[in-house]
Amino acid sequence: MSVSSQQPDITSCPLHEVDTFSADFLQDPHPFYRRLREEAPAFRDPKNNVVYVSTYDLAMEVLAKPRVFSNKFGAQLRAGAAGGEMSQEELAILAKGWVPKDTMLTADPPEHTRYKKLAGKAFTYRKVIGMNDYVTGIVHDLIDGFIGDGRCEFKTQFANLLPMYVICDALGFPRADRERFKEWSDAFTLQLGGVADMKTRLWCAEKIVEAQHYFVAICDEKRNNPGEDICSDLVQTDLEEEGGARKLSNEELISIIQQILVAGNETTSHTLTTGIFYLLTHPEQKARLEADPSLTENFVEETLRMLTPTNNMWRVATQDAEVGGVAVKQGDLLLLRFGSANRDDAHFPDGDRFDITRDNAKEHLAFGAGVHLCLGQQLARKEMQTAFPIVLSRLNNMQLVEAPESFSYVPSILLRGVERLDLTFDPA
Ligand code: HEM
Predict the structure, then answer these.
(1) Which terminus of the chain has a lower count of CB atoms within 10 Å, N or C?
(2) Is the CB of residue 380 below 6 angstroms from any atom belonging to ligand 1?
(3) What is the pTM of this model?
(4) CATH number of the domain within which 339 lies
């Protein structure tokens, strides 16, 4: 996708003229991020009245104050961050489902702490370490499915499927329903973006209600026939409260399951796809990695830093405050620009350079920081650290089908990654 002629030159025009929610802008926001870091590390965009936080230090400052900069942005986004109330039609669709409780991503301490502890039991380091052979098996099975062809579209044939299979198995959901899960993920992500048009919002509402009924039906089934999976654990678990212990409600179950299903799919898929893209467009880095596979862990971290699949995330001010010299009023929305913080030269020297030997790559904010630090970070790392070496060793002589300039990124406000990756390789 090329930058349209209507767009001002984002490298020189006044900052407020840039439409940062437009599809063209989202193809390459980095020149603008650089300007934000240099000219206005905290910047109130007058078009949408959102405050952008763009440097590493300022992002850390905001992340360290969850009581002032809250994650309870759910209701605001459901109503549309760019303004506007829910339409009657949208409300009518949503009335057929449940109003999910704010549990992890859209909750604050102390409720947040209780739910995260509960869900965290499924993703402990020890559990994830034990998944080595299992993840290796899925990676080989997926590659077996296309290696004889000598070509593939890596995102749909591999990168979307690995995290989807892992999360379906963990939740106790049938893999066969993955097309539906993908649609539901898209709907939840669009809703979280907060700027979808009404037609899209209605589609999202339909899909979200469909997902909720599916989740509740699965939970009912697991109450009667529990298995070794997260849904079975969640329906049986007791939530400790002041008045005593109780089971989770449907509103709580829906919220937790939805987040586990959605949060790790697109993000991990984008990192797998774009990691291969980075290697093929930086052959000297690929050669280094192949010569020294012990660099795999750092390569994964550097890919997470450079790409930052969760490029932006919301916060809402609970009180009047100040960020980087900008006054923030209670109720204001902030956009934490993780993708910009991760290229901040003050923290990552020569931040736009892809370098798999970078000393401090792991200090990136791709998984966030503070109380909302990603629940699935160990799992995502396990999938990527397992997948990349196998892909590199089995797909010999990998080549891009298209020229690197023709690649496009998904036009999402929150997520970032290349849309598709057509490859050729020597058939085995
Ligand atoms: C490369 C893959 C991933 C990336 C880049 C990523 C990124 C993030 C980020 C940036 C946050 C913090 C959001 C904030 O500060 O408000 C987060 C939170 C979260 N992530 Fe991930 N994530 C990934 C994989 C996963 C996986 C595999 C799962 C599920 C198993 C998962 C589940 C969650 C959940 C539930 C939260 C909310 C945690 C909380 O609010 O305390 N993520 N993730």
Answers:
(1) C
(2) yes
(3) 0.95
(4) 1.10.630.10
